[in-house]
C-alpha cells in the first residue's frame, strides 16, 4: 500500500470527498468543522494538501451531525467532544430544548405577523377609494412620539422611526405599520400641512419597550385614497366638510396610515393611504357630546 507523508497508511483513510458523500454533507462543511476545531482530519498530505479521515472519526462525525440536526452551535459541540460525559450531554440537550422552545415561540409570532400583514395588504388592495365612511375602530395599542414634520414620502419618516426603534432589544418590524397624526387643535384650525406626531401601530403579539398608549374603541370618519402623505390635505378637507354636514365634532387626533407605499411597491398607482378622524355627535344646540 502506498504511504503518504509522515508514514500514514492511506489505505486506512478516506479522502474528504468520499467522507462527504458517505455522510451526505459537503466537503465545505467538513472544512468548516475543521476550522471551528470540531473535527480535524486524521491526516493532511503535506505535498498535496489533501485531507484524509479515518474510520475511528466516523462515530465523532455522526455525533456532530446529530447535534447539528438539533441546531446546537458548533462551539457547544466542540466543548462536548473535548469533555464527553453523559451528564454533560444531558445538560446540553436540556439547554437546547429550551432554545428550541424559545425559537418556536418566536416563529409563531413571526407567522402571526406575516398573517397580519397579508390581511392588511389584501384589505388595502380591495379598498373602495374616495368614499367617506363612519367606522368603529377596535381598541389598539400605539407607541408614539411628538415630532412635527411635513412628510412627502415614507422616507421622510425615517428619523422618527429610528427614535421609536432605539430602545428595542430586538428589531421591530415597522414596514406598513407607521402612521402620522394631526392633533385635535390643529384639525379644528384646518391646519393640514404639518403633523404633530409619528406613531407605530402595534400588533397584538408585539412587545414594545417604551411608552405605549392603549387607545379605546373609536368612532371615526375615514377615507382611503390612492396617494401618499403629500396628497392628504385635500382629503382632510373632504372629511372636515362631512363632519360639519353631519353635525359631528372632532374628538381626537387623526391617524393617517400608508397601507401601501414605496416600501411595498414602486407603482404609485397601487399606493393606498387611509385617514381616520375620531368624532362624536353634537348635542342639540351645537355643543359637543361628552
Automatic annotation (TrEMBL):
Domain HTH merR-type: 13-83
Keywords: DNA-binding, Repressor, Transcription, Transcription regulation
One Pfam family recorded for the sequence: MerR_1
InterPro entries: AraC_E-bd, DNA-bd_dom_put_sf, GyrI-like, MerR-type_HTH_dom, MerR_fam, Reg_factor_effector_dom_sf
Superkingdom as given in the UniProt entry: Bacteria
One term of GO molecular function: DNA-binding transcription factor activity
PANTHER family (UniProt xref): MERR-FAMILY TRANSCRIPTIONAL REGULATOR, REDOX-CYCLING DRUG-SENSING TRANSCRIPTIONAL ACTIVATOR SOXR
Protein name: Transcriptional regulator, MerR family
